[in-house]
Write a structure and sequence with these properties.
Layout: H1 3-8, E1 14-15, H2 20-26, E2 30-31, H3 35-42, H4 48-58
Parallel strand pairs: 1-2
Length: 65
């Protein structure tokens, strides 16, 4: 058992990141909704295609979509 697994037995692990790969890797119970963290993550080169696809899909639509 590693330290993260041990910690999960006693507390809720919350991801304080917008990096989707880190969230997938560490499997937190919850995550922050801080938009600045999401913005920082999508500026990484590995997420460029996701950003381009999403902008193209929602271009011209209301922001709450």
């Amino acid at each position: 058992m590693n330290q993260l697994e041990a910690l999960k037995q006693y507390t809720t692990v919350v991801a304080d990141t917008g990096d989707f790969r880190q969230i997938e890797a560490f499997q937190p119970t919850d995550a922050t909704t801080n938009p600045s963290l999401i913005l920082k993550a999508v500026q990484k080169p590995e997420y460029r295609s996701l950003l381009i696809e999403t902008v193209g899909q929602y271009r011209g639509r209301a922001l709450d979509e």
